[in-house]
C-alpha cells in the first residue's frame, strides 16, 4: 500500500487466422519463454520482455491464471481500484481475451473453456464473496466512449452523452451513470451481454465485428468485515444477527470500497488499411486521437517520477477516465494483444513498443 508498483504488462499472441494462413503470411512473432518474445522479419529483429507472454496455444484459463488476473480480483475486494485493459490493433484478440468469442453468439452459449477474463473474474469474485467472512455489495456500470462522447450502455433508450467531471476527492468521474446491483453470475453476465449489444460496432476489412468505441465495465465492490466488528457483536446475541447489518454507529470497523474495471479499447489502425470512409473515418480518427493521447500519457509516465512534467490526461476522455489507473492510486494490468502475422508487422511493433513503455509506468496503490 502506498508503495510504487509497476504496471503489470502481459502479451498475448493470437493464432494466425484462416485469412492470414490462406494469404500465406509468415509467422514473425515467436515466444522465447520467460516473458520474452522475438520478432524477426526481413529488416526487423528485436526481442521484448514482459511479465508474461502467452502464445497461440495458450488457453483462456492459462491467460486468466498466468496474467495475475485472480490476484487483481482479490485486490479489488481488498479495496483497491483495479483496472485491466486490453490494447492492440483491430482483430488482434482484445475482445476475445476479455470476453471470449461471445460477440457472435447470442443464441448459442459459449463453451465454458472459451470464456474470457471477465466471466472468469466474475466467477472468482462471487466465489470469494461467498467464502469470505465479509459481506460484499456488488454493482456494475458499463460505459462506452464513442466519438469522444461518454455513453451509458446499461440505461434503456437511445444512448445519450453523459458529462465527465472532475472533483478533488473523486478525480475524474462520469455524472449520472447508472449502476446496477447484482448478486449472481447470471445477472452480471446478462448485464455484460445487454451492454455489449448496444456497443457501437461496424464491420470493416480487418474484423467483421470491430468495436468502434472504448468500453469500460466497472464492478463496484463494497465490503464490510461483519464478523470482526466488535461494536456490533455486543448485546446482539450472536454473529448470525450481524450479517447484513451496516457498521454500528461510530464504529471504526473496516469498510472497504474497491473497483474492478475492464477496458476493451477500440483497435488502433490506420484509416487506409481498414477501407474506412465517411462516418467510419470520423470514428477511426477519434479512436486514433484518443489512443494517441493514451500513448502520449504512457510515454511521459514511463519516465522516472522526478522527471515528470505535466501529464496531459485532459487530452481525451479515455485518458481522463484512465488517469487513476495509469498514474494514480490504481493497480493496473495491461494485456497487449498482437497477431503473429508478417502482414501486421508494423502495428505489432508499435503495440510492443507501447507495451514496453507501459511496463515502466508505476502507480502508488
Ligand atoms: P479485437 O477485439 O482486438 O478487434 P477480436 O477479439 O474480435 O479482436 O479477435 C478477432 C478474431 O480473432 C475473432 O474472430 C476471434 O475469435 C479470433 N481470435 C482472437 N484471439 C484468439 C485466440 N487466442 N484464439 C482463437 N481465436 C482468436
Ligand atoms: Mg474488439
UniProtKB/TrEMBL annotation:
<comment type="similarity">
    <text>Belongs to the TRAFAC class myosin-kinesin ATPase superfamily. Kinesin family.</text>
</comment>
<keyword id="KW-0493">Microtubule</keyword>
<dbReference type="GO" id="GO:0005875">
    <property type="term" value="C:microtubule associated complex"/>
</dbReference>
<dbReference type="GO" id="GO:0051231">
    <property type="term" value="P:spindle elongation"/>
</dbReference>
<dbReference type="InterPro" id="IPR036961">
    <property type="entry name" value="Kinesin_motor_dom_sf"/>
</dbReference>
<dbReference type="InterPro" id="IPR001752">
    <property type="entry name" value="Kinesin_motor_dom"/>
</dbReference>
<keyword id="KW-0505">Motor protein</keyword>
<dbReference type="InterPro" id="IPR027417">
    <property type="entry name" value="P-loop_NTPase"/>
</dbReference>
<keyword id="KW-0547">Nucleotide-binding</keyword>
<dbReference type="GO" id="GO:0003777">
    <property type="term" value="F:microtubule motor activity"/>
</dbReference>
<keyword id="KW-0206">Cytoskeleton</keyword>
<protein>
    <recommendedName>
        <fullName>Kinesin-like protein</fullName>
    </recommendedName>
</protein>
<dbReference type="GO" id="GO:0005524">
    <property type="term" value="F:ATP binding"/>
</dbReference>
<dbReference type="GO" id="GO:0005874">
    <property type="term" value="C:microtubule"/>
</dbReference>
<dbReference type="GO" id="GO:0007052">
    <property type="term" value="P:mitotic spindle organization"/>
</dbReference>
<keyword id="KW-0963">Cytoplasm</keyword>
<feature type="domain" description="Kinesin motor">
    <location>
        <begin position="6"/>
        <end position="361"/>
    </location>
</feature>
<dbReference type="Pfam" id="PF00225">
    <property type="entry name" value="Kinesin"/>
</dbReference>
<dbReference type="GO" id="GO:0008017">
    <property type="term" value="F:microtubule binding"/>
</dbReference>
<dbReference type="GO" id="GO:0007018">
    <property type="term" value="P:microtubule-based movement"/>
</dbReference>
<dbReference type="InterPro" id="IPR019821">
    <property type="entry name" value="Kinesin_motor_CS"/>
</dbReference>
<keyword id="KW-0067">ATP-binding</keyword>
<feature type="binding site">
    <location>
        <begin position="88"/>
        <end position="95"/>
    </location>
    <ligand>
        <name>ATP</name>
    </ligand>
</feature>
<dbReference type="InterPro" id="IPR027640">
    <property type="entry name" value="Kinesin-like_fam"/>
</dbReference>
Amino acid at each position: 500500500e502506498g508503495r510504487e508498483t509497476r504496471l503489470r504488462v502481459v502479451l498475448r499472441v493470437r493464432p494466425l487466422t484462416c485469412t492470414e494462413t490462406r494469404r500465406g503470411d509468415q509467422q514473425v512473432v515467436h515466444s522465447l519463454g520467460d516473458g520474452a518474445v522475438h520478432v524477426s522479419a526481413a529488416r526487423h529483429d528485436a526481442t521484448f520482455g514482459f511479465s508474461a507472454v502467452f502464445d497461440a496455444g495458450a488457453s483462456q484459463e492459462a491467460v486468466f491464471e498466468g496474467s495475475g488476473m485472480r490476484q487483481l480480483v482479490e485486490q479489488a475486494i481488498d479495496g483497491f481500484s483495479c483496472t485491466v485493459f486490453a490494447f492492440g490493433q483491430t482483430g488482434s484478440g482484445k475482445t476475445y481475451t476479455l470476453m471470449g468469442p461471445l460477440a457472435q453468439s447470442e443464441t448459442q452459449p459459449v463453451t465454458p473453456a472459451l470464456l474470457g477474463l471477465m466471466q472468469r473474474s466474475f466467477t472468482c469474485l462471487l466465489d470469494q464473496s461467498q467464502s469470505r467472512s465479509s459481506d460484499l455489495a456488488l454493482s456494475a456500470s458499463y460505459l462506452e466512449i464513442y466519438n469522444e462522447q461518454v455513453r451509458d450502455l446499461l440505461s434503456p433508450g437511445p444512448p445519450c452523452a453523459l458529462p465527465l467531471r472532475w472533483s478533488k476527492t473523486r478525480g475524474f468521474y462520469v455524472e449520472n451513470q447508472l449502476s446496477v446491483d447484482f448478486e449472481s453470475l447470471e445477472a452480471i453476465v446478462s448485464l455484460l451481454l445487454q451492454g455489449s449489444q448496444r456497443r457501437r460496432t461496424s464491420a470493416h476489412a480487418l474484423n467483421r465485428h470491430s468495436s468502434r468505441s472504448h468500453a469500460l465495465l466497472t464492478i463496484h465492490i463494497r465490503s464490510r468485515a461483519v464478523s470482526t466488528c466488535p461494536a456490533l457483536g455486543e448485546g446482539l446475541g450472536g454473529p448470525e444477527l450481524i450479517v447484513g447489518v451496516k457498521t454500528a454507529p461510530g464504529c471504526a470497523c473496516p469498510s472497504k470500497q474497491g473497483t474492478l474495471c475492464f477496458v476493451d479499447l477500440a483497435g488502433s489502425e490506420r484509416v487506409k488499411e481498414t477501407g474506412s470512409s465517411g462516418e467510419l473515418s470520423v470514428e477511426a480518427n477519434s479512436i486514433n486521437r484518443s489512443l494517441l493521447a493514451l500513448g502520449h500519457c504512457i510515454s511521459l509516465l514511463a519516465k522516472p517520477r522526478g522527471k515528470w512534467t505535466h501529464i496531459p490526461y485532459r487530452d481525451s476522455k479515455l485518458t481522463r477516465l484512465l488517469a487513476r489507473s495509469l498514474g494514480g492510486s490504481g493497480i493496473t494490468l495491461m494485456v497487449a494483444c498482437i497477431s503473429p502475422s508478417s502482414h501486421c508487422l508494423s502495428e505489432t511493433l508499435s503495440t510492443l513498443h507501447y507495451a514496453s513503455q507501459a511496463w515502466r509506468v508505476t502507480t502508488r496503490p
